[in-house]
Design goal:
2 domains; GMP Synthetase, Chain A, domain 3; 3 helices; 31% helix; 6 strands; single chain
């Protein structure tokens, strides 16, 4: 056990959560669930964690491989089950790379390395969801 996160109740249904980075974040439900929408939604944070984990891998590989990429984004569309406990059972993760000089083969290799080898959050998601990964190349600026 090497990571510790403390989440403190701030009243109503809002919380503040610590992170080993030293940056804190707020968690709250939407108004439809009795909250005030003053923080991140817990399940959506999981998707941000997935995108961030894989994104860090890919960004590091772009730097290591000295690839020319103007920009890249990761979009995630996830299906939430209808029965409680609700969880993501299908996740579509789309990488979008932008630039006039994209090395598509090496960028695909970077995505594959993250998805298949490095991203621990991806491995966790695979325990409960079908995860589909797509890669899109855009030769013009976003």
């Amino acid at each position: 056990m090497g990571v510790k996160v403390t989440t403190k109740w701030l009243g109503d249904i809002k919380f503040e959560s610590t992170n080993p980075s030293g940056h804190n974040l707020f968690i709250d439900a939407g108004e439809e669930s009795g909250g005030k929408g003053e923080g991140f939604r817990p399940k959506a944070l999981m998707l941000s964690g997935l995108a961030g984990c894989s994104g860090i891998d890919v960004a590091a590989l772009i730097k290591k491989m000295k690839l020319n990429v103007d920009d890249f984004t990761i979009e995630i569309d996830a299906n939430l089950t209808e029965e409680h406990p609700k969880y993501y059972d299908n996740v579509l993760m789309s990488f979008h790379f932008y630039g006039p000089d994209l090395n598509e083969k090496k960028l695909q290799r970077a995505v594959d390395l993250s998805v298949e080898k490095y991203c621990g959050v991806m491995e966790m998601f695979r325990q409960f969801a079908e995860v589909i990964v797509e890669t899109h190349f855009h030769n013009k600026r976003a």
